Amino acid sequence: MNKKELFTTILVFLFISIAINLVLVKTNVIKYNNIFIDGQEVEIEIMDELENIYNDTLEYEIPVCLAGEVTDNGISIRAMIEAEIVSTSLHNVTYVSCPLYIGSQRVIGTIHNHPSGECRLSNQDIETYVNDMSRGQEVIGLYCGEYVFFILSRLEGVIPE
Ligand SMILES: [Zn+2]
Predict the structure, then answer these.
(1) What tens digit of pLDDT does each residue of 124-143 get?
(2) 113: CA distance to ligand 1 center in Å?
(3) How far apart are CA 126 and CA 14, in angstroms?
(4) Residue 136 Cα distances to 12, 97, 104, 121, 139, angstroms
(5) Ligand 1 centre distance from Cα of residue 118 (Å)
(6) Average pLDDT value for the chain
(7) Could you give the domains of the chain?
(8) Spacing, Cα 2 to ligand 1 middle (Å)
(9) DSSP collapsed to 3 states, 88-123
(10) Are 98 and 110 in contact (CB under 8 A)?
């Protein structure tokens, strides 16, 4: 790849990334933070199981499938299983897609940790997210020292009729 091609490739990636971010902003990505304070909005019945997995000393990412319910009042997480990992590192994780159900609970999304402590979604997270949405998922969570959840459930509101 020569310099010009490299430059073009970088520009294209930049544009795609900006476009995806614009879509997320336009479609009301709701960020629920500080779940311990804001317990009504994010209810996690399986906190003990999550705490068994996530801590600040992890040096690689672990993805977990979350099941429960998304309502107008927030989200309720009632079941989880660790996703089957294909590869994982400090900044990246590839995993086999979550099942549609865990027991009788519908899979509503995923959570993974950021060993860097970064609480924002990476570009790869957003790509994965958009992909998972086509499978009916609405929630992406991060453990970055605290638990942060992003919900994208208003998408049908912006699809033109
Ligand atoms: Zn991530």
Answers:
(1) 888 888 788 888 888 889 99
(2) 7
(3) 14
(4) 28, 12, 16, 19, 10
(5) 9
(6) 79
(7) 3-157 (3.40.140)
(8) 31
(9) ECCCCEEECCCCCEECCEEEEEEEEECCCCCCCCCH
(10) yes
* DSSP character at residue 83: P
Cα 159 to ligand 1 centre (Å): 27
How far does residue 26's CA lie from ligand 1's centre (Å)?
21
Instruction: Report the predicted TM-score, pTM, of the whole model to 2 decimal places.
Output: 0.70
**Ligand 1: distance of its center to the CA of 19 in Å?**
19
The answer, yes or no, to whether residue 158 has pLDDT greater than 70, is: no
CA atoms within 13 A on the CB side of 79: 14
| Count of CA atoms in the C-beta half-sphere (13 A) of 23 | 15
Ligand 1 centroid to 157 CA: how many Å?
26
Q: Which residues surround ligand 1, an ion (CB under 5 A)?
A: 122, 125
How far apart, in whole angstroms, are the C-alpha atoms of residue 84 and residue 62? Answer: 9
- The H or E element containing residue 69 is strand 63-71
Give residue 103 CA to ligand 1 midpoint distance, Å. 26
